[in-house]
Design goal:
- The radius of gyration is 33 Å and the shape is elongated.
- It has about 130 residues and is of the alpha/beta class.
- It is built from three helices and five strands; from the N terminus they run H-E-E-E-H-E-H-E.
- The model has no long low-confidence stretch (mean pLDDT about 80).
- The longest helix has 17 residues.
- The termini are far apart.
């Protein structure tokens, strides 16, 4: 009975071809990489008291309540003063998104006036928030 049973060969994995492929890939990536010489300047920068005050990292939030009062970041503001603020923001960067939150009873005229103030003075990324 034992003569009829054949011994199976143990399966083995030849890793030599795998290592050859990995070596070729490493050489390829080393040759194709662009090495740039990094140079740094030894500078001592002056101190500025207003540093970082002109950065608008997030968004500008405008709110309009049911009575038609416009708020900039929670503070009431007139449309003429809003125009000056928007001009100042647009001088720094025109990439700031403007989020307008208006009460559902706000007139379309007031909403479009606020949007026009923003667009005409350089801020065109306007979003309207709703529930």
């Amino acid at each position: 009975m034992s003569l009829l049973q054949r011994r199976r060969k143990k399966p083995n994995v030849n890793i030599i071809p795998l290592m050859d492929v990995l070596t070729i890939l490493i050489f390829f990536f080393l040759v194709s990489m662009q090495f740039k010489e990094m140079t740094t300047l030894n500078l001592t920068l002056p101190d500025i008291e207003s540093a970082g005050q002109n950065e608008f990292s997030e968004k500008v939030t405008l709110s309009i309540d049911a009575e038609g009062v416009v708020y900039l970041e929670g503070n009431p503001i007139e449309l003429d003063a809003l125009k000056e603020v928007v001009v100042g923001i647009a001088k720094v960067t025109d990439d700031v998104p403007v989020l307008i939150r208006a009460d559902k009873s706000t007139t379309v005229e007031l909403l479009t006036d606020v949007m026009d103030v923003c667009r005409l003075n350089g801020l065109s990324k306007i979003r309207l928030q709703s529930k």
